[in-house]
Amino acid sequence: MLSDWVTVGGESNMAKTVAAATKTGEAAAPQAARGKAWLWAIMALLIVILLAGGGAVWAVKKSHAQDEEEGDAPRRSAAKANKAGTAPIFVALEVFTVKLQPDHEGEDKYLQLVPALKALDLPASERMKAYMPQIRHDMLNLLSGRKASQLADAQGMERLAIDLRNRVNQPLLDPRSPAPNADKAGADDPVQAVLFSSLIIQ
C-alpha cells in the first residue's frame, strides 16, 4: 500500500514537474518570438535610414549639378552665338563730352561721343560693367588728347575706335600680358570693338 502511495505520489509529483516545465516553455516561446521581432524591426529601421540618407545625398548632388549647368548655360549660349556670328553682346556707355586739344591757338572745340563696347562674350560684358569707372576714366583721358583735325574723316574715327579698344582692354586683361596695341582685336580680348552711335564736334 505504501509503495502504491509513493508511486502514485511520485507520479503525481512527476506530473506536476512536467506540467511546470511545459508552462515554462510555453512562457519562454513568446519572449523569444518578441526578441526576434524586435531584431527584425531594428534591422528594417536601419535599412530605411540608410536608404533615406542615400536618397538625400543623391538629391543634393543632382541639385548642385543642375545649378552648375544652369549657371553655365548663359555662357555656353553666348559662346555659341558669338561663334555662329549671331546675337552680339554690346555694352552701351553714357555720352562723353570732352574739350579737344586746339588745332590753332585760342580755338576751343568740344567732342560729344556716344560709344558702345562690343564684348567677346557674356562674362566679358559683366567684367566691363565691374570696371566701368576705370574704363570711362581711361576713355576720357584718351579723348581729351585728340584734336578736331584728327577726327575730321573716316580714317581718323577708325583710328580713334582702335585706340579706345586697346585702352579699354588694358584693365580687363591679365596684368602680366603686354598692353594691347594692335589694329585688330585679339581672339581673347574682352572688348572686340568700340562703335560710335553718335560723334559730334562743335
Keywords:
202 residues; rod-shaped; Tetrahydropterin Synthase, Chain A; four-stranded antiparallel sheet; alpha+beta
Task: Tell me what the structure shows.
- This protein folds into two domains: 1-87; 89-201, Tetrahydropterin Synthase, Chain A (2-Layer Sandwich), CATH 3.30.479.
- It is 61% helix and 14% strand.
- It has helices at residues 2-84, 122-130, 132-144, 154-172, and strands at 89-92, 96-99, 110-119, 191-201.
- Strands 1, 2, 3 and 4 form a four-stranded antiparallel beta sheet that branches.
Q: Could you give the count of β-strands?
A: 4
For the largest beta-sheet, the strand count, sense and barrel status come to: 4 strands, antiparallel
Radius of gyration, CA atoms, in whole angstroms: 44 Å
In whole angstroms, the N-to-C terminal distance is: 150 Å
CATH-defined fold name of the largest domain:
Tetrahydropterin Synthase, Chain A
Low-confidence stretches: 1-11
- Supply the helix-strand structural class: alpha+beta
Strand share of the residues? 5-15%
Helices, by number, come to: 4
CATH class assignment of the largest domain: Alpha Beta
Shape: rod-shaped
Q: How many structurally independent domains?
A: 2
Q: Which CATH architecture of the largest domain would you pick?
A: 2-Layer Sandwich
Order of helices and strands: HEEEHHHE
